[in-house]
Specification:
Layout lengths: L5 E2 L5 E2 L2 E2 L1 E2 L2 E3 L2 E3 L6 E6 L2 E10 L3 H20 L2 H17 L1 H12 L3 H24 L4 E3 L5 E8 L2 E5 L7 H12 L3 E5 L5 H13 L7 E3 L4 H10 L5 E5 L2 H10 L5 E5 L4 E5 L5 H13 L9 E7 L3 H12 L20 H16 L3 E6 L13 E6 L6 H4 L6 E7 L2 H8 L4 E2 L1 E5 L3 H10 L4 E4 L15 E2 L12 H7 E8 L2
Parallel strand pairs: 11-12, 11-14, 12-13, 14-15, 16-17, 16-22, 17-20, 19-20, 22-23
Antiparallel strand pairs: 1-4, 2-3, 5-6, 7-8, 9-10, 10-25, 18-19, 21-24
Helix pairs in contact: 1-7, 2-4, 2-6, 3-4, 4-5, 9-10
Bound molecules: nicotinamide-adenine-dinucleotide (NAD).
Nicotinamide-adenine-dinucleotide binds next to helix 7 and helix 8.
Length: 499
């Protein structure tokens, strides 16, 4: 096993002893940040629980990381596809053997329930297997060309890929970028979210345990405005893949030169549209899962419900009943079905939108901030249903990223489509209906990149293309889905063979 952590005697203490002091992985070795600083990482369900101290790195660390992996990349590119695939298969096996342990740490670090954390951990093993297969399927094509020549496309790795990820799926967002990057023969510089650095650490440990050449991956912990920003301007980065907010994604896009390809997956303002033929209980169950699962902190989470006017009152009542069955608490607690928000900033943002609802005269029918007497100090909110929201309200247009769902009635399908698309985002929409012509009209006309029928906006297959429209993605390349993903992580050279 890779020994990745060391105990620092000077680290602040907790009841169970000193907090672990983690390291960057640069140039094939675990090391502290060049300037020596650290930041704390705490459990969002119990702020007295200090998970560890992580390097507060800077531009110097980023430069060293890029130089280190670039030197190792040529040998990996020359390794056989089987070698690359075997490493990814081994990583999948290691993760599968450690699922319970990693999932428990994911719950402690990010707050999602143990069941959700187990799902995410298992998903990354599946991702590694999937992209192991893609390593073997990388191929070029041949083209008939005039003059008796043949042209062929030669597929080569891009070079060094920077991976910047958010806290909400700290394992799976990273795995679905790092695995295809390595499968295609690239080196990786990985900057996990400063809100979930331990999961970044675990992912790199697994890859090293699986036999990834040590110099080929670098892990640089730290803050977005320092490490993240340095990565976007570091010479030697050939491709950058980012998942996070639109605000940061837009800055990244603006800062990159034409030599760096860039993939941005960003926010969402996802809607479930309930048509008038829908079964109320089925619709409420779909919305409950999409809106309150993962504490509403999925990029595809359901944040608004557009409902045929004649169903509005019945659906509202059923949804309120469903919301009130959710049990909040620490994600590993008995019977808990919803964990806390992941960060103080998340709670502050959610609270601001509850205030907007009050100011606009909407009705918070259930939810809001809980009585925290029985809960440890953490970022708590209840599943929240808001009714009486008018089209154009920020509650129907802005990403809130919390278990808050706003209801709005509509009279015609055209009106539902207009409200659904009246946001700068365009990630996921779901429709509850068995009326095929209406479903197909929404699927064909909506400005969302993912359309789900009779299922929640959340939950996607790892072998189908993923990505949104408008401010949800920069449209350069879809994530997930196989061969299209490998196009981002490889580049094509056209070779003409003359006689
Ligand atoms: P964020 O944009 O604040 O941070 C994402 C990452 O970018 C972090 O690692 C952060 O440190 C880094 N970063 C911050 N400032 C930077 C800068 N100036 N330059 C470079 N990097 C910088 O996002 P977050 O709060 O971690 O995550 C939540 C957001 O992610 C939501 O908007 C959510 O919708 C989105 N998300 C999207 C998807 C998707 O696939 N579309 C999936 C998950 C989350």
């Amino acid at each position: 096993m890779t020994v990745a952590t060391e105990l620092a005697p000077e680290a602040p203490g907790t009841e169970s002893g000193p907090a672990p002091q983690y390291r960057n992985f640069i140039g094939g070795a675990w090391q502290a940040a060049a300037q020596g600083g650290c930041f704390e990482n705490r459990n969002p369900a119990d702020l007295s629980d200090l998970i560890g101290l992580f390097p507060d790195s800077g531009a110097e660390d980023v430069a060293a990381a890029v130089a280190g992996v670039s030197a190792a990349q040529a040998a990996w590119a020359a390794a056989s596809p089987e070698t690359r695939a075997d490493m990814l298969y081994r990583a999948a096996e290691i993760i599968s053997g450690r699922t319970a342990e990693i999932a428990a740490e994911l719950t402690r670090e990010e707050g999602k329930t143990l069941a959700e954390a187990t799902g995410e951990t298992s998903r990354i093993a599946a991702n590694f297997r999937f992209y192991a297969g893609e390593a073997l399927r990388l191929k070029g094509e041949t083209y008939p060309v005039p003059g008796g020549q043949m042209a062929m496309s030669l597929r080569q790795p891009v070079g060094t890929v920077a991976v910047i990820t958010p806290w909400n799926f700290p394992l799976s967002m990273a795995a679905r970028k790092i695995a295809p990057a390595l499968a295609a023969g690239n080196a990786v510089v990985f900057k996990p979210s400063e809100m979930a650095p331990l999961m970044g650490q675990r992912l790199v440990e697994v890859l090293l345990d699986a036999g990834l050449p040590a110099g080929l991956i670098a892990l640089v912990h730290g803050k977005g405005p320092t490490v993240g920003k340095a990565l976007t301007s570091a010479p030697g980065i050939d491709a950058l893949t980012f998942t996070g907010s639109y605000a940061v994604g837009a800055q990244i896009q603006a800062s990159l030169g034409t030599d760096t390809r860039c993939q941005l997956e960003m926010g969402g303002k996802n809607a479930t549209v309930v048509l008038e033929d829908a079964d109320i209980a089925k619709a409420a169950a779909i919305i409950k899962r999409g809106a309150f699962g993962l504490t509403g902190q999925a990029c595809t989470g359901t944040s608004r419900v557009l409902v045929a006017r004649k169903l509005h009152d019945a659906l509202l009542a059923e949804l309120v009943r469903a919301a009130e069955t959710v049990v909040i608490g620490p994600g590993d607690g008995d019977g808990v079905t919803m964990g806390p928000l992941a960060t103080a900033a998340q709670l502050e943002k959610a609270t601001a939108y509850l205030e907007i609802a009050r100011r606009e005269g909407a009705e918070i029918v259930t939810g809001g901030l809980p009585d925290t007497a029985d809960l440890p100090e953490g970022h708590w909110i209840r599943p929240t249903v808001i009714a009486g929201v008018q089209p154009g309200s920020p509650l129907l247009r802005d990403e809130i990223f919390a278990p808050i769902v706003a209801l709005c009635p509509f009279d015609t399908l055209e009106e539902a489509l207009a409200i659904a698309d009246d946001t700068e985002y365009g990630l996921a929409i779901s429709v509850v209906s068995d009326h095929l012509p209406s479903v197909m009209k929404i699927a064909a006309e909506t400005q969302h990149g993912i359309v789900k029928v009779n299922s929640p906006t959340t939950g996607v297959a790892l072998n189908a293309p993923f990505g949104g429209f408008k401010h949800s993605s920069n449209q350069s390349a879809k994530e997930q889905g196989g061969a299209n993903v490998m196009d981002f992580y490889s580049r094509i050279k056209t070779v003409y063979l003359g006689a």
